[in-house]
Write a structure and sequence with these properties.
7-stranded mixed β-sheet, 16 strands, 5 helices, single chain, mainly beta, 5-stranded antiparallel β-sheet
Amino acid sequence: AEEAQAEETTQEVETEVMEETEDEGPHVPEDAMTYEEYVAAEVDSEVVIRGAIQAKQAYYAQEDQGSANVYLQDENGGAYFLYNLPCTEKEYELMEIGKTIKVKGYKSEWSGEIEIVDATIEILEGSYIVEEAFDATALLGTADLETYINSLVAFKGLTVAASTDANGNEVAFLYKWDGSGSQGDDIYFNVTDGTNTYTFTINAYMVGYGAGSDVYAAAEALNVGDVIDVEGFLYWYNGAQPHCTSIVVAE
């Protein structure tokens, strides 16, 4: 659940020993990897990638510098998730949706989610790229779905299944993963494709809530049995747990 992600503690990162010369110092790669090279890279190894910003979660203010979580996708469909990217509020504002950035950081894994941590970025000049959602409906329940981790995907014709709240009542959605929250918190809801049941989420820090957030309001209006089409970023927590950006109830 997203709660577990929020409670993730900083872990020591063991970096590979870099070649060093008297003149040049440590060797740090500068060229961006292909997505295939990124996938093949070992967890905790240094990675350099480039991609266009597809979504960003709200800026987390701290003492002198904040952070944000960011979804990226490259021109070949490779997708990336930057977790706790250190940035100032001004840098956060400059990270516009569709803008291409170069990222240097460390590949990490958390309960199945593959992410980049301890990253630095460079905002690049050029055109804006916003990808369309890939229809992954047929991949639900298959091992192939994970190959689209962190991508913008669509699932169509799913049925809202009941969740159980803290009082044991069957409901269409929960505020927080265990139902202990209230409006403004992340929303969790179950869907079924007729064979398996999956948990989808609304990340309030990414889409907002209340006036102006259509997807948050759409989640609050769900009823058990509704047939829905969903778009979102394929976040992974011990299985697929998409961060939804659109919910449409079939007429």
